[in-house]
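User: Can you help me understand a structure? I only have the sequence.
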Amino acid sequence: MLNIFNQDHDLAIPMGIPHVFRFRPPNENTISELKEHYIWFSDRDSLNDDLDSNPEFVQLSTDPKEQKLLYNTIAERILDPKTKAYFDKHMNTERLQEFASTKIKPFVSSFGIACFTMYTMNEKLWDIYSENNKGVCLHFDSSNDPKFFHNILPMFYVSEIKEREYSAISQPNHIIDLFYKKTKKWSYEKELRLLKDKTGRISFKPSSLRNVLIGYDAEKGFIEAVLYSVKDNYKNVKVFQIVKPVSIGKLSYKPLYIP
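Assistant: Let's start by predicting it. Here is the structure, written out as tokens:
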């Protein structure tokens, strides 16, 4: 039996940058991700916190200069003369503000989100995200796929989520800040978040996956499916199983497959 905090052996599971961990439930989607080496990036509506990345906290800037920039930017892209004439006649800054505001929610929802954590010895994460220790924790070395992991960043935990003003033209990237703040009740997750410009499946390099840790209550069929997926699709990935009990300072594991 091996302890997560003992790093003085060949089967140690390293922690800290560049190592990141992702918990997954015991289902076919997890097996599919393992077999085809991809991660599913969800939109913000699929997150388990209503306040997380909520577009209702984004308000377009009311600064006259910013509104003028927005007006000019849209006007410059209208090439049809009749449409341009109608726009100039009817689209004042107030109407433009109303129109642009309706685009914030679909814009925010167009981003793909994948959640990781800094540590694997987190009992709550095993309970919540691997369905009471029946799923897996995937261990990645992000340095082996810098393109895929290039913008993975830690979450900032704040007392409350506050409304922010968004300058769509002069500071278009400022809205990204919306995705990296959660309230302090979620701080136990120690989350690292990876953001993409689309949702759905995005492939990672197989070499970036280092280890797969299976929960101590995983069913035999799921364990076998994980083992087959790893053996058939990766060269150097090890599979371990957590040994009960799971708690900070006492996380132990045993090897199931060492290539």
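Now, to help you interpret it: The mean pLDDT is 86. DSSP finds seven helices and 15 strands in the chain. Let me know which part you'd like to focus on.
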